[in-house]
Structures are given as C-alpha cells and as structure tokens.
Amino acid sequence: MRAFSMSNTPHAARGVAYISLVGMAFVFFSCEKVVTIDLNKADPHLVIEGVVSDQSGPYTVKLSKTGNYFEPALIFPPVSNALIVVTDDQGQKDTMKEVISGTYQSSTLKGIAGRTYSLNVIAEGQSYNAISSMPKKIFIDSLFAMVRKESREQPGYDIYVIFEDPPEPGNYYRLNARSSAHIPTDSIDGRRYRMYTDKLTNGNEMAERIRAGRNVAIGDTITIDLLSIDRATYDYFNTLRDVLSSDRAATSLAPTNPNTNLSNGSLGYFSAWTIDTKMIIIK
To answer: Is the residue at 280 inside a domain?
Structure first.
C-alpha cells in the first residue's frame, strides 16, 4: 500500500506556499480500491505574514485564508477587521491599521536590534500570537562578481558575498539576490530561499557563491540583502524551501506545512530581522 497527500500551489501574490493538509490526511491506493478525500471540504486556516526590521517603517502584517485545492484559480481571500498589536520588551506598543483589505501597517513602531517583539492578532473571534527576537546586525564585508572559467559549468558569472560570523554561536542568515534585468526580481537564478547557519562555521568568514550563470550580464545591477534572523525564522524558511523543492508527484509522500512560530493552528510566520544591503554593477 502506498500513501500520498495533496498540497496547495505557492501563493503567487506573495511568494509564500502553504500545504493544504488542513484537517485531512492521506489518499490510500491499493490494487483493488481507491479511497479519496474531498479537499474542498477542508476548513480554511488563517495565514499570517508579518515582519519587523531595523529599516524605517511602517512594518506590515498580512492576513489571508487558505483556499480550496480544486479551485480553477486558487484564491487566498484577505481577512479584514482584525485587531493586530505589536509590542517589544522595552515597552513599545503599536496597534496596526488596515490600509487595504487584509494588509495592516504600523504607525509608531521602531525595529531595534537586540529587542524581542510580540505579535497578537485577534481575527474572526480567534487569538493568535508569536514572538521573534531581532538579532545583532551583520554587515556584508564585500560583494563581487567573477567570470566563470570552469569548462564544465555554464558560461556566465558567479556572485560572491563575504561577511563575518560573530564569535557567539547560534547565528542564522538569509540572502536575497536579485538583478535589475531578471524576473523574478527577488532571485537571480530562481532560488528564493538561501538559508545559512554558523553551526559548522561559527566565528569564521563566510563566503557564499551565487551561481548566476547567464542570468546576469554586463551592465546589470546586482542587489544582495543579508538578513540576520532568529532560529524560528530560519526553521520556517528552511522547511518552506524543502516543501517547494520536494517531489509533488501523486505517487510520492508530500511534506507537511512549514514550521511556524505562530499559535492556534495558523500558518505563516512573524519575524524580526536586520537587513544589510549592497549593490554592484557587472562590468
């Protein structure tokens, strides 16, 4: 007997994917019988996407609902009229305002490295919470491009990002790499979640190569964001990357939802991170 589970496609509007395993499990195959489960009857879950950074606000929290698997065009309806409050461990408190349906923004909150931020959402009579600590900011030391010379690799360019990991263990990072001439704009080569940890390189220089190949050319502007994130954020995006890269064939086991720091069965994440950004022009 072989089992598999069905999953949603990625959330096109925000680049975030969620697996529609809500309140249901598997479809079992045998030589004699097929047992199916109606995914359209799965109860929708709240999806929360929220970030506080060390950049100037306002900061945004988005609320939506998971959609039906068999809809011709998946719709993730926004959730309006929610009460969203973000506080930190130094007494800051900001009640977010809904600027468009399902999108809420801060007005006075400031993101400061070293502080811990708490999110409280009350939506449709339910309460959801999350906590995230903003790590120390790590800066990009150098950023450069090199022409590929290896005969076995596709001609083009490699981008190198160099930064120093601090001596304290337990640091986590995400790199965003984009080109002025490449779509999607948040990834040079389609790899959207570049996650790193200092588990094996604590306190050392970290040199990360981005194999851009022919996706970049002379005159392109390359922008790199180095995000210093906490463990919960790393776990979320790391498992999300695994979900998106997994084999979704009907004959294979599908993964579960990405790890989340949100309570009460909601999907998504709440994160406080720092960002350092550098740019180069390919010459």
So the answer is: no
Average pLDDT, rounded, for the chain: 80
Residues 129, 133, 134: CA angle, nearest 5 degrees: 130
Structural domain including 10 reads 2-135+230-274
For residues 96 and 11, state if they share a domain. yes
Q: Is residue 122 part of a domain?
A: yes
Tokens of 266: 């909601």
Per residue in 160-200, pLDDT (tens digit) is 999 999 999 999 999 998 888 765 555 676 677 889 999 88
For residues 29 and 36, give the distance between their C-alpha atoms in angstroms, rounded to a whole number: 9
Say if CB 269 and CB 249 are below 8 A apart.
no
Residues of the chain with pLDDT under 50: 1-40, 69-70, 72-73, 247-255
Separation of alpha carbons 227 and 236, rounded Å:
14
Instruction: Give the max Cα distance, the chain.
Output: 63
Domain annotation covers residue 221: yes
CATH number at residue 161: 2.60.40
Q: Is 147 exposed, middle or buried (0-12, 13-18, 19+ CB in 10 A)?
A: exposed
pLDDT of residue 215: 80
Rounded CA-CA distance 240/245 in Å is 9
Distance CA 3, CA 29 (A): 7
The whole-model pTM stands at 0.77
